[in-house]
Amino acid sequence: MPSVPPKVKGTRPPNEIDFWRGFALVTIFVNHIPGIYFETFTYRNFGFSDSAELFVLLAGWSLRAMVDRSRDLEPLRLVFRIGGRAVVLYVAQLVITVIAVAMIAATALLAQTNLVLQWNNAAAVFDEPVTANIGLVILTHHLGYFDILPLYIVLMTVAPAIAILHRFTPGALLALSCAVYAATLYTGFNLPTWPVEGRWFFNPFAWQLVFVIGYVLGGDGRPQRLIKKHRTGLRFLGISFVVGSFFAAVWGWYPDWLTAPEPAAFFVVDKTFQTPLRLLHVLALVAAFGGAFLYLARWAKPLVQYFSMLGRNSLNVFCVGSLLSLAGQIARFTFEGNLSVDVAVLLIGLVGLSVTAWVSEWRQRL
Amino acid sequence: MAGLAFACAASVAVAQTTPADPAPQTPAVVQTQPAPAAPETVVEAAPTHPLSGQCSVPTSEIAAPAPLPTLVSRLEKNLPLRILAIGSSSTWGVGATSNRKNYPSQLEGMLERVLKDIPIEMINRGVSGETAGTTADRLRMEAALIKPDLVLWQVGTNDAVQRVSVESFERTVGKTVAVLKRKKIDVVLVGLQYTPKFARDEHYFAIREALKRVAVEQNVIYVRRYQAMEFIAKTKASIRMMADDDFHLNDLGYQCMAEHIAQAVTANLFVRRRKPAS
Question: Are strands B120-126 and A192-193 parallel, antiparallel or unpaired?
Answer without folding.
Answer: unpaired
